[in-house]
Design a protein that fits this description.
The structure is a single chain. With 358 residues, the chain is an alpha/beta fold. It has helices at residues 5-15, 28-44, 64-76, 91-103, 117-123, 161-178, 180-194, 198-218, 233-242, 249-267, 272-284, 299-307, 340-351, and strands at 22-27, 53-55, 84-89, 110-114, 128-133, 136-143, 148-149, 317-320, 335-338. It is globular. Bound molecules: glycine. Glycine (GLY) is lined by residues 122, 126, 128, 222, 226, 229.
Length: 358
Amino acid sequence: VGRGVLERLARELAAEPPGRPLVPISDDRVAVLHAEPLARRLRHGGVEVLPVLRFPAGEASKIRETKARLEDQLLRLGVGRDAAILAVGGGVTGDLAGFVASTWCRGIPVVHVPTSLVAMADAALGGKTAVNARGAKNRVGTFHQPWGVYADVSLLATLPDAEYANGMAEVVKTAAVGDASLFRWLEGAVERLLARAPAAQAHAVEACLRVKARIVRRDERDCGRRAALNFGHTVAHAIEAASAYREPHGRAVALGMCAEARLACRRTGFPASHLRRLETLLAALGLPTRLPAGRRWGTRSLLAAARSDKKARAGRLRCALPRRLGRMPAGDDVTCEIDDAALSAALGALAARGPRSD
Ligand code: GLY
């Protein structure tokens, strides 16, 4: 993690290539900005790199059909089991290219070069790969640990403000579930982070990856404590689905954390003062803490969307709820079953106009 990480990547790939050739996969926007220049730099350093395989940017591409099209291109290029995939992009690219790598010739290595804050701080690490299937998010996928993850924060300079704020939601989430001192540091670093100071970005990303690595090492296959990383996500996925995916993931996660922290106040003793600190930090980072006026999806449609989420067990909703900022409950199961009445109340509080409504 840091600046100049791509130079290190070039050196390490030249010295010990995970596969030959290297096949870069990127969306058509990031291909021009980052994947093509990186491929040229690697070739210059003596690494065998095929042309960048591209797909249209956006969540709509994260489907089985895009994976099949990429695989058709691998077939045409004669790519075999000695190759490795280089995933250059945000969360969609990492999930899609990781999935391609995990099934191509029964699995070839993947190297992640995340270019968005969401991907750097969360998605690229931990081996989850997936595509959506008929609107069901991440329904088809695998666990496939990467050969390496190289997060160069200088790539964040080209990230649109809205996507940067989305990434900040995952940074706040990671601190909230696993690192109280990171949370305190974030509260004091808002201005530097909004100004995109590279040192502050590198500190935040590295701290998040340490938290995530600790959790994933203990529960790689997501059977227990890894669910901590889903704090805010049960409600977030419902908001995304009920808004027909018009509400961006990070904003939905911010709202989801506000709703689920309210549930935590009742279920785990999460202090009300910590709920206020969470809302204050999210608002300072430009993230919503109340449902946007004029877009109040009915509680009923949010409840239905939440129940159909893949994390619901037998139609019953479960949320990963912290005990306090930076601390999850002890034991392997960090989730609580949530009944409709409690969820409706928490969603209702999100719709209420508060001091920081937007
Ligand atoms: N992004 C949540 C996880 O990797 O488990």
